[in-house]
Design a protein that fits this description.
The protein has 157 residues and is α/β, with parallel strands linked by helices. The chain has one domain (4-156): Mannitol-specific EII, Chain A, CATH 3.40.930.10. It has 6 helices and 5 strands. It has helices at 8-11, 26-39, 46-58, 114-128, 131-139, 143-156; strands at 17-21, 63-65, 68-69, 83-93, 103-110. It has a 5-stranded mixed beta sheet. Strand 2 and strand 3 form a beta hairpin. Helix 2 (26-39) packs antiparallel against helix 3. It starts with 7 loop residues before the first helix and ends with a helix.
Length: 157
């Protein structure tokens, strides 16, 4: 991950993207994203609980842009490798953020150490910095559309 953005597509296989996911509330949305991290082999199930606990303790700061949440927790033994998951919700859910609610896109991040955590967050910040790119991610209806947006960003970097 030395070059920041060039690692996102490697961290986000198509199998780690779900669209049209039903979630009754933010906990269910984060659980769905955590379940994908588990199924991809990036985390053990305990990491999902750690992400939920982080939001319960620190609030909805993880809602980083209108409609987009980036749940994550500190590096822990529950993280097996760096990984991302993307869950596009069938219906937006509130996370409790005063400006950026409700959330439609949940991008979960898992990193085994602080260096990988910081690099992945920086790469995601670059991906999400441009409004047109965020809009493309938010309106994606298929995993391939999300991957295409990530790859287009990497091609420009």
């Amino acid at each position: 991950m030395a070059e920041g953005s060039h690692a996102l597509s490697a961290l986000l296989p198509r199998s780690a993207i779900r669209v049209g996911v039903e979630a009754a509330d933010w906990r269910a949305a984060v659980t769905a994203a955590g379940d994908v991290l588990v199924s991809s082999g990036a985390t053990a199930p305990a990491y999902t609980g750690e992400m939920i606990a982080a939001i319960e303790q620190m609030g909805a700061y993880m809602v980083i842009a209108p409609g987009i949440a980036l749940p994550h927790a500190r590096p822990s033994p529950a993280v097996l490798r760096v990984g991302l998951s993307v869950v596009a919700l069938a219906r937006p859910v509130p996370f409790g953020h005063p400006q950026n609610d409700p959330v439609t896109l949940v991008i979960a991040l898992a990193a085994p150490d602080n260096r990988a955590h910081t690099q992945a967050l920086a790469a995601l910040a670059g991906l999400l910095a441009e409004e047109t790119r965020r809009a493309a991610l938010l309106r994606a209806e298929r995993p391939e559309e999300i991957l295409a947006a990530v790859e287009a960003y990497e091609d420009r970097s």
